[in-house]
Amino acid sequence: MPATTMDQLVALCKRRGFIFQNADIYGGLQGVYDYGPLGVELKNNIKAAWWRAMIYERDDVEGLDAAILTNRKVLHYSGHEDTFSDPMTDCRKCKGRFRADHIKDGKCPNCGSTDLTEPRPFNLMFKTTVGPVDNADNIAYLRPETAQAIFTQFKNVVDSTSRKLPFGIAQIGKSFRNEITPRNFIFRVREFEQAELEYFVDPGDDEKWHEYWKEERIRWWEEQGLPREHMNIYTTPKDDLAHYAKACYDIEYQFPHGMEELEGIANRTDYDLGNHTKAQEEFGLTSKVHANPESTQKLAILNDEKKKWEVPFVIEPSMGVDRAVLAVLTEAYTEEDLGEGNSRIVLKLKKHLAPIKVAIIPLKKNNEQIMNKCHEIKQNLMKLGIGRIALENTGNIGKAYRRHDEVGTPLCLTVDFETIEQQPESVTLRDRDTMQQIRVNTADLPNYLREYFMK
């Protein structure tokens, strides 16, 4: 099967209501996208799978939902104000603006000119003001990452949960980066969603936990349908590490535009908690961090065995939700030759990620008896809590099947005249991947679907 192209995915996303260009009627806003009716379902299902794996299936992680607006001091002491920038260069000929590290052979990617400006730093954070007066004292930022709120709320979480090391705090939320050159659809955008875990460990145990989370996250991606052979582990060279990191693994995936980062797993050491913690000598802080003269809190935890306060080290698995959507769509997109000149597009999504779990399709459009039975079945199936149940009323079974193949619906349920005329009542169930159809009694449907979606 040929590799999926970005053009195929973009066309499918617009055609079937997964993803739209933001403000499309006004020419769009570069690097900003809106999720349509099916896209928001897929995105929510990915987030739910991550949250379930991080919070519900573990006993050592707590959740958080912090504000987007960020106090300027947070990003000052985290180092973002000084270091969160990309090198930028302009082409004097075509007036294009590009990241300097993306320039190849000294030529403009747009027109090929070599008449480029010297690289200069470009801060990626979106700045705003809070309150009616626009001055330096009221500057705030749209957060460039969700992590900093986890660090600044560390003491509150520990005090309210009595956690001991090792433990984690997880969060899903919007972040904002003023990318110089957004590109490759939703891969690199200015407004995006992150799913981040900050896992706090004893200093000295950090390398062990770094390896643990690398394997744990690869396993999770496999459960979402990405085979290991389509992923790569990239170890970031020390010269390329972020300002806060001791080491970092990137889980890369073979996107349509190439092998690129899907998730980063960083060893942030005690950099963040140390930089946000109140100045007190008895913490025994490492030389890498400095006590904060403006902080009011001691962001440390009492080591019962050593009988002293410690600033924990942090391992951070950080996933871009939008990149997860793109990767899952890329892996699931399939074009099948059915023979005799027939073909179909099918999204072979994992069942738990499918936007629509079951499509109920009446054999005859607007038939009162059949439609009443469809509504009755839908109401009963919704009680199962398996996800979205969609009711069609098109009257064209073949087109309905093809449409739901294309959006990844695992099962189509057809209500026909046999359903309402024969006893016991039964319906036809069609499997997305095999296209095989079976007859199931309506009384047996709840148990059948529970078992099907639990596999």
Low-confidence stretches: none
Q: Cα-atom Rg, whole angstroms?
A: 26 Å
CATH architecture of the largest domain: 2-Layer Sandwich
What order do the strands of the largest sheet run in, or round the barrel if closed? 3-10-11-17-14-13-12
CATH topology description of the largest domain: BirA Bifunctional Protein, domain 2
Instruction: Report the oligomer.
Output: single chain
Helix and strand arrangement:
Layout: H1 6-15, E1 19-21, E2 33-35, H2 37-56, E3 61-64, E4 69-71, H3 72-77, H4 80-83, E5 85-90, E6 97-99, E7 120-123, E8 126-129, E9 139-142, H5 147-152, H6 154-161, E10 167-176, E11 191-201, H7 206-223, E12 231-235, E13 247-255, E14 258-269, H8 271-276, E15 301-303, E16 308-310, E17 313-320, H9 321-332, E18 333-339, E19 342-347, E20 358-362, H10 368-382, E21 389-391, H11 397-407, E22 411-415, H12 417-421, E23 426-431, E24 437-441, H13 445-454
Parallel strand pairs: 3-10, 20-21, 20-22
Antiparallel strand pairs: 1-2, 4-9, 5-6, 5-7, 8-9, 10-11, 11-17, 12-13, 13-14, 14-17, 15-16, 18-19, 22-23, 23-24
Key phrases:
BirA Bifunctional Protein, domain 2, alpha+beta, single chain, Rossmann fold, 3 domains, 13 helices, 455 residues, 7-stranded mixed sheet
